[in-house]
Each structure stands twice: as C-alpha cells, then as structure tokens.
Amino acid sequence: MKASKILVIFILMACSVIGSNAQNPNTKRVAIKVGADLGLTKGMSTSSLLDFQTDKTSTKSFGLDFGYKFWAKKSMSFDVNIGVGYKMIDNKLGIENVDYSYEASPDADVDHNSYDRYNAVAEINQTIDTRSLAVPIYLSYNIRCAKWLSFHLDAGAQINYIMSSTITNSTAEIDTYGVFSEYDDLMIDADWLDNFGHRSVNTVSNSEAAVNNLNCSLLLGGGFEIRLAKPLWLDLGVRYNEGFSNLFQNQYSRNSIYSSENAPITYTVEDGEVVKPLTRYLTKSKLSGLSLRAALVFRF
Fold first, then answer.
1. Contact predicate 300/30, CB 8 Å
2. Is the pTM of this model over 0.90?
C-alpha cells in the first residue's frame, strides 16, 4: 500500500535523527493549524450492481485544527488534535452498452396498454458533487530534529457529516422499442409513440443523491514542520483515509435493478424518460485515499 510505504519512510527518517539531533522539548503547548488537503489517489473504494465504465472520485478539503501538547520529553512529544473542515467530494460515474427489458405498466403507454419495453442504453454519465463537514480527531507523535525542523506521525479518526450531495450533470443516450403481446407481439419503435426510437436524455428525476449523513474513517498521516518565523511553521505531509461505512445508500438488489421502477432509465407518459442516480447502484462507496496536506501552524 502506497500510504504504508510513505509512513514507514517518515518513521525511518525520524528515528535516524533522534540521537544526534536531540533538542530541548518545545515549550509551546498550543497549536493552531490552517491547512488544505488535495487528493492524490482515487478518493473512494467502490463496487456496484452495474458495470461502471467511468468511476472516478476526487477530493479536496480545507480547515482549521487545534492542537495541545500534553507530553514532552527531550526531543519527543505527543499532541492531541481536533479540527473542523469543509470537504468536497466529486464523483464521475458512467455506464455504457447496457441492454435490458421490463414489463411496462399502463402508465407507460398513451392508450394505457401493458407491453414489454426494450432498452439499449448507449451511455449514461453523471457528475455528483458532495459537500461535507469534516471533524478530524487525532494524536500526533513529534520528533524535534533541529530548532527549525520536526517530524510528526498522526493517527486517529475523521467524522464526516454530509451537508449536500447533488447530481450536477446527467446525460444519456438510449434506443427503445415496445412489444405488445395483445397485438400478436407487435414490435413498435416509432418515435411518435411512447418515446420509442433513439433519444438523448439530459434530466434526472431527483437532483439529490441518497447518502448516509454520517460516516467515519480511519485517519493516518505524517509529515514535517519547518519554522518560517516565530511563531509560524510550515507543515507539509500526507494523510490517508480509510472509510468504515458507505457514503451513498444502495437502494436496489441485483434481482430488482431491471424493473419498471428501478432500471437505469424508466418511462411513463406523464414524466417521460427518468434517469436514476447511478449512486443508487453502488453496493460499496467508502472514502479511501491518499492526500497531500499543507498547513500554516501557529505555536504558542
């Protein structure tokens, strides 16, 4: 795992300088950290009921952390930290070349006849923007190497409260025809009836993706601080998150995804084509990834 290798490197670098560069412990107890995180890897671990051809997640966040040094001895110390931040998660999901059929209900026909509706989906692409309030709680193990340099390793958890998850873009291409059993299995693909034929669809029935409002993740990290000028330090490092719970709510089972209610694109005369949020087909959607972190630290 890339994150584990990076943390090992930080540990080895820190341990190598303990003996020869021991300093008096930092007497500054309080730290205020203003920083930002930028995702370096895919920010979510996913699995789904559909075969996604596009499955991308990017993350970024900024926030304010407060730290207190509760133990110090020679060049080593421990800080306890809590923060609050604003996290942005952007998902791009897409499927291609999906064929399915279902028994359409009478509200899917202008004459209220039941029939079998056949769909050939060329593609569906969606962009989902999720915004959350992030609260990291973690311990930092610090090693002071020089008056101007120190290393730290972090471990804790991060709680995310989802404030919104909006489908900002949704496009689809579909070819449809109907087979009417009461007319000796007559096949109709005329575009003047029940929206058969080829269609481009650019709307969704619900602009909000269904989410679990609270989720928690393991937080690991490491980095180094460089003193710029008293009491200001520059903190550069990495953070790794591994989610414990799913971000998006899975709302279907594998046996029910191709029905008149649950298929990726459904139709009624009143509503026309409705493209379902692709997040509903995710069986796993846990935040997971490595981020680059940069912060200004004020120590008092």
1. yes
2. no
134-157 burial: b if 16+ Cβ within 10 Å, else e = bbbebebbbbbbeeebbbbbbebe
pLDDT in tens, 226-273: 999 989 999 999 999 999 999 999 999 999 999 999 999 999 999 999
**Number of folded domains that form the chain:** 1
The whole-angstrom separation of Cα 187 and Cα 298 is 73
* Cα–Cα distance measured from residue 23 to residue 240, given in angstroms and rounded to the nearest whole number: 29
Which domain range does residue 87 map to?
A: 2-227+235-299
In terms of C-beta density within 10 A (0-12 exposed, 13-18 middle, 19 or more buried), how is residue 123 classed? Answer: middle
Q: Give me the amino acid identity at 218.
A: L
Closest CA to 50 of 114, 100, 118, 108: 100
Residue type for position 295: A
**What is the distance of C-alpha 149 from the center of its chain?**
34
d(C-alpha 274, C-alpha 202), whole Å: 9
**pLDDT tens digits for range 161-181:** 999 999 999 999 999 999 999
What's the rounded Cα separation, in Å, for the pair 94 and 171? 9
CA–CA dist 129, 212 (Å, integer): 15
